[in-house]
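Incident log, support desk, overnight shift.

02:14 A customer reports that sequence design results differ from what the structure should imply. Their input is reproduced verbatim below. On-call engineer (initials T.W.) acknowledged and began investigating.
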């Protein structure tokens, strides 16, 4: 609404263009008032992807003959939205520099933390059973943002917990470090096979992080298949997939180790993950594994022998060019995607210790769609290709001591394998907890919304938190975990990433628009594009609510 007010005062731009983060497609706006009326500019529960928006903007300038252009970015500078470590930025910067028209980048920073705000998240849901019946044990975290807790502990706040319509209230007192409750037990009605619930805080400065949905179903024992002709490697991978568990509260996983010749006889119907250590599969093995992945299974390939066949590929991925590092200078992993996905932060909030890995031998990975991690010389280390409903991951090294310290370091290997196993077992579960941005809802034609609370009409369900039924699956979708991270990027980081471009940075507050008016007055001709990223700062009556990514031009 601030933006609409400013544009109406300065006069309608000659050319107004919007690109939203949901589709990254540009569209023209004929009336300024449309910015608050259209679904494309409504708040969502997903994370903004600034590089993707900038790529869409660059493409717009390339396709359309524009005499002059300005790119406006309004953001609270939340680090995860900017993805400054992404290699995409180099291509974006080079692309803008190569345009035949002058481009200016104007960044309006609304980077003050929202005051008096709490955020709730369910970090785990476990189904338990004893003589008294079935129950859910849930882990709940309440994060204090801004100045919500002051210097001490707040008065008790009613935390509402709803499971299948049954409500209960848990009073919590939140300090600066937040609040956490573990294994909070909620009895389930007899015969309940699947269902859903939510945890909700009272209204505060940001409504979109006050509720967190969860779902439950019948427990499924995690199962992984390890394919390797090397006994030592098979043992290491089996332990990573199914470590000994002595806590009766957690269901132990099972790892089935087979040789490559035994793979055709193994049962994949109850398997979530295949760890393939050795040459890539051929012919019948490849077809069988492909069907497994297309149905939602996960595969992690690790190389084995020095000699590989580059012509042999799986889902477009393959290995070539075996290399050895200097004896005293192993390769290190220096860049990886830590905000979400396979290599995301640990539940403790600490980064996955990828930098502790030492790679003494590697194979170049060919045909990757997405590089998740790179070594210090830029060579891909972890890659991912999508295949149907599943994923195919490749490592550039193996667990052999002569090749890396993956087995000795342990933490990275265990976290990666467990995350893949959890993701793969979701295809066999009757419930699933995922985040906004996951493709399940957007690619499934028969979805049905189950939560009865009011939600934003006209917005794609793929951009909303809530509970959905997809065939026989109950899916709880929430904002990504990265949206609760409070770290902001510094102005120097932005200017460095956009070096070579005409960039200016203006700091402003949500409550005033004088700086914005002054800047927009400078633009009276040509095309400008304003990116109102999905931050909790703009375009809404409640200024702290999340807004869709939007690019506006004059």
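02:41 Re-run completed on a clean worker. Output:
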């Amino acid at each position: 609404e601030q933006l609409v007010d400013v544009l109406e005062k300065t006069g309608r731009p000659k050319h107004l263009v919007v690109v939203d983060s949901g589709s990254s497609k540009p569209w023209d706006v004929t009336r300024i008032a449309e910015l608050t009326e259209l679904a494309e500019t409504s708040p969502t529960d997903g994370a903004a992807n600034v590089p993707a928006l900038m790529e869409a903007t660059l493409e717009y300038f390339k396709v359309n003959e524009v005499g002059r252009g300005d790119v406006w970015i309004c953001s609270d500078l939340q680090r995860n939205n900017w993805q400054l470590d992404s290699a995409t930025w180099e291509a974006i910067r080079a692309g803008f520099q190569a345009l035949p028209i002058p481009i200016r980048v104007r960044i309006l920073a609304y980077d003050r933390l929202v005051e008096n705000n709490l955020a709730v998240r369910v970090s785990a849901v476990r189904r338990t059973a004893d003589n008294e019946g079935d129950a859910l044990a849930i882990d709940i975290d309440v994060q204090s943002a801004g100045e919500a807790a002051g210097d001490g502990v707040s008065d008790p706040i009613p935390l509402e917990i709803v499971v299948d319509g049954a409500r209960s209230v848990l009073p919590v007192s939140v300090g600066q470090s937040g609040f956490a409750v573990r294994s909070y037990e909620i009895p389930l009605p007899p015969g309940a096979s699947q269902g859903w619930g939510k945890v909700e805080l009272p209204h505060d400065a940001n409504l979109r992080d006050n509720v967190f949905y969860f779902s439950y179903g019948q427990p499924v024992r995690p199962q992984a298949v390890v394919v390797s002709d090397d006994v030592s490697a098979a043992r290491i991978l089996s332990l990573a997939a199914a470590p000994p568990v002595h806590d009766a509260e957690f269901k132990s996983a099972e790892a089935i180790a087979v040789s490559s010749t035994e793979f055709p006889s193994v049962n994949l119907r109850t398997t979530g993950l295949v760890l393939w250590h050795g040459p890539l599969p051929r012919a019948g093995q490849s077809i069988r594994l492909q069907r497994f992945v297309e149905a939602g299974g996960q595969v992690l390939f690790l190389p084995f022998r020095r000699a590989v066949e580059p012509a042999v590929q799986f889902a477009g991925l393959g290995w070539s060019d075996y290399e050895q590092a200097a004896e005293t200078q192993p390769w290190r992993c220096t860049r990886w995607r830590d905000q979400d996905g396979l290599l995301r932060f640990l539940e403790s909030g600490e980064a996955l210790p990828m930098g502790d890995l030492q790679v003494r031998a590697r194979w170049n990975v060919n045909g990757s769609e997405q590089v998740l991690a790179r070594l210090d010389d830029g060579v891909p280390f972890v890659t991912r290709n999508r295949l149907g409903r599943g994923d195919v991951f490749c490592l550039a090294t193996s667990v052999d001591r002569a090749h890396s310290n993956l087995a000795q370091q342990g933490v990275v290997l265990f976290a990666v394998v467990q995350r893949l196993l959890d993701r793969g077992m979701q295809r066999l579960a009757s419930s699933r907890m995922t985040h906004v941005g996951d493709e399940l809802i957007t690619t499934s034609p028969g979805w049905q919304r189950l939560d009865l609370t009011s939600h934003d009409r006209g917005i794609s369900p793929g951009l909303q938190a809530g509970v959905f039924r997809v065939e026989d699956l109950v899916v709880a979708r929430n904002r990504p975990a990265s949206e609760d991270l409070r770290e902001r990027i510094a102005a120097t980081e932005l200017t460095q990433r956009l070096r070579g471009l005409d960039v200016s940075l203006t700091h402003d507050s949500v409550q005033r628009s004088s700086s914005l008016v002054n800047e927009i007055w400078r633009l009276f001709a040509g095309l400008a594009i304003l990116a109102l990223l999905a931050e909790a700062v703009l375009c809404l009556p409640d200024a702290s609510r999340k807004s869709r990514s939007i690019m506006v031009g004059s």
